[in-house]
Each structure stands twice: as C-alpha cells, then as structure tokens.
Amino acid sequence: MCQILLASTRIRYDPEAAIRHDSGAIMEFQLATLWEALATAGPDVCCLVAGDVRHTRRTLDDRANQLAHYLQSSGIEPGQRVGILTYNRAEHVEAMLACFKISAVPINLNYRYVAHELRYVWDDADLVAMIAERTFVPVLNEVAAEFGSTAHYLLLEDASDHEPTFSADHYEDALADQPTTRNFTNERSADDLYVIYTGGTTGMPKGVMWRHEDIFFSAMGGGNYLEPISRPEQIIDNAVEPAMPMNMTATAPLMHAAGQWVTMIAIFTGGKAAVYTERRFDAAKLLDLVEAEGSQTMSFVGDAMAIPIIEEMERNPRELPALFAVSNGGAMVSPATRQRLAAAFPGKILSEGFGSSETGTVGTGANTSAEEEGSHFNVGPTTAVLDPDTLEPVDIGVAGMLARTGRIPLGYLNDAEATATTFKTSPDGSRWVMSGDWAILNDDGRLLLLGRDSNTINSGGEKIYPEEVESACRTHPAVGDIIVTGVPDERWGSRVVALVDTADGQTLDLDSLQDHCRSHIAGFKIPRDLIVGPLQHTNVGKPDVAWARRYACDALGIELPT
Fold it and tell me: Which domains are seen in the chain, by residue range?
C-alpha cells in the first residue's frame, strides 16, 4: 500500500478557543474543526433528520465524540481507514464526523457490493475497522476469514438477525461506554484526507483523495453557497444567524458523493439535512419529507426520479412553501420532463448540478427555457474545455475535455497509473483534473455537456456522444426514458443503438425515431437500431450504461467485446 505524506504544520485543536474571535487561536479548514466550532456556538439547532432520529448539533456532536473515543481507544490512528457499510441513517453521518475528529478516513462502501467487490475495496483501502448494519453480515462473513483478524467490527442493529462469524461490538454498547468530551489525542490539519470511492463505472472502484480544505470548498458549499467563507472562524457566524442556511433533502445514498455532499452543505451552511431513509424510491414519501422538514431544496436524478415526483404532485399537489428549488443531477432530463416539472412546481427554480467524485461541484444548470435541448451549465473560472492531448483551451463551439484546476484532489489511492492519466499538468504549470466528460463552450459562455469519454461511440472515425443523441431523441413525443449506447459493427467499428421506454404506452418504430432525429443531429449520429422496453438504472437512478450495452448486444445477437 502506498502512503502519501504531506508537508504541513500540524496544530493541536482547542475547541473552546476556536469560538473566541479574539483568542488568537489558530483554526484550520479541517472538517471536524469546522463542525465543532459550529456545534459549540449554536448547539441547540436541529441539523440532521434521518427517519425517526432528529439531531441537534449538540446531540450529533456527542454521539460522534463517543464513537471517536471508541475508535481511538481501539487503536485507530490518524490516516487509517474505516469502512462504513450502511443504508441511509443518522449513524452514517455520526461515523463520518467521528473519523474526521481523530483524523481517520471514513470509506464509503456500496451496499450493493458482492463479496469480491467488497474484498477489492477493503484491500485497496487497507481498512482497519468496519461499521456495518447487521443486514450486511452475510457478505461480511464471506470476507471475514481474510480480514477478520486485522479489523475492528461495529454492528448496527436493524430488522435482520444474521449472525456474524467474526467478533463484533454492538454500536450502541460501544458508544455507551465512552465520554462525550472532545479530548482527543491526535493533531488535526487541513491536509487530513477525505476519500470517496467512485462507483466503478469503468473498471473497479477507485478512491479519490481530497484534502479536507479542498473538499470543503469544492463540494461542501464552503460555508456559504453563494460566497464561501474566507477564514475558518467565519463558520461560527452560521451557528445562530447564518447568511444563507440551506435546509436540504438528501435523496441520494450517503454511500455516494452526492448524498454526502448535500448533507454536508446543509450542515456547514447552518441549515438542516433531511436524509431520505427509505430502502426504495417512493416519490410520495420523499415529498412528505420535504414538506414536513421545510426543505428549501430537493434533489433528484434524471427522468427516472423526476417523472414519479411529477406524477405524485399531479395526483396529490402540495404547496411546499419553503421549497424554492428542485435540482437534478447525475442524469439528463428531457425537455418534456422540464416542462412538466415547471407545471408541477410553479414558481420554483428548476436547476441542474454537474460534478463528480474527481472534480467536486463543477457547474449549475443554465438552460434558457424548459424546452431547450441538452444540459447547459454555467461554470466558474477554474473550469475549462481543453484539448486532452495539448491541455490547451479549445475554440468556442469545438468539443473538448471538461477540466478543472485549483482545489482538486491529490489523486487516486494506490493507483499511480490512473492518477497520471486523470490528473495532468499543463505547459504553464497548472494542475488539472480531466473529468472524462466531453463538452462544448458556447459563445454565450455556457457549457454544453456532451457525454463521458468512456461512453463515447466511435463510428467510422467519428466521435458520437450518447447524451447528445439522447437529447435529440427525447424531443420525440413517444420517447419516455432512453439510454443510447454503441455496439460493434463490422463496417463502422461501432453503431448507435437507442434503448427506449416509451411514454404513456405509446408506440415507436425505428423509422419514426430516425426521421425525427434528422432535424436535430447529424446523420452519422442517428440511431441505427431501436430496442423498446423497460430500462435498467443504477441504485441512484442513473442510466445503467453497462447493462444497456450488454442488453443491446444480446438483443441484436452481437458478441459483447471483452
């Protein structure tokens, strides 16, 4: 396992001195340090709701302190990694904060992992402890023989009764024996590591390494979503009279960056995170949560979530007076869906967010109308569209690779090759993260997202971006949901296939779809095959591109390349 040592001046953190403006105490942009200053200055504000659990800053901090003491007393040292394997629940947030307090690194584990995937991430992250729900004991039993003797286990109770083959402590019992004080023995730094494992859409998951200070500004709101704070001490202002508190409903799983970041934005801006805890997506329950908690923003992922939300609002309209924005991210929505959203949420801001584990939050949606095709974004000065070979900016209207500089990750954990491929230095010395997303910069300053490099279809030497084709197809009235992928073709190398779930029971044939697309995209981009039927999505509602390619090849009788 590789270890990265960062040059920094470490300081011992005094939580009481941190809230005295005139104390002269040094305070850094370290996530636990920021959180503790916020909690000390305004302890009785409700900051987290997850199912039946409601936490004020004081109660959340007390629980995180108890867990942090348990981990430290178990021998967990700064920089060591602690796995978290849970559904959405308050203890997931407690565990993250506890790790930050002792400069340990929480590792997000996908609750859909099978044994070999869990084994891979466990080994790659070199986990020394595991916090898991009892429902995941069967998969843990499969890997415990290999890792059990080197790890500490904490089990969270749920409705399951699986028995572990390994020795484990019960979460509540472990916390009950620990104090709620903050007298930890480690020294903290803004250079402490935050690691988020990617979903592994191309190859096995990779751990993206961020400094605490960089992730705070790049993805966690920077203490103020519109005007980030410039000094750590300013976080105290959010404790009682925040400039812009964000009461947000976190719909995505906390095992993913999106769920974590929405939760942390709400907490650090002085607002409240309402975490959606249902095991399956239920639009009615989501809207009930938004209404009950007075959330100002609600997020969703693509048409797969947007359409059920719209249908629920049409069946059972809610006023939602506190809500001012509904935000999409992670997958495109069709123009028709945008129009229905506008009708279902009159007077609300319809926004889209764009980013990734490697880039943080890159841009916000900037479609000029509900009918506009494609996903357009406003981006900041640290984002550019570059030639991936020369790292020079491309001309207006020319496709290039979306890249970001400034506060970006250190690289991938234990993967020097992938780090060198994704993180590059331009001739002028600027360090860039190459997002893998192709985009065009329009002459109005907006960015048009085209699609992932790994999903790009090369047909006869022409690059075709699936999202662009999907955008054109979505304007056809019979297209409900769609995934565009490429399959092998003897003549062209690859050809375009559209997998479509039709809208409202309508029928669709290939000729009709092709005729419609000819007025929207170039001929070589038009789908050559059409497969109609239900589509598969990932656990957070994104189109399952890997499944689509396998399914298309099987349906068309084409051998899937290895």
Answer: 29-44+57-221 (3.40.50.980), 375-454 (2.30.38.10), 456-555 (3.30.300.30)
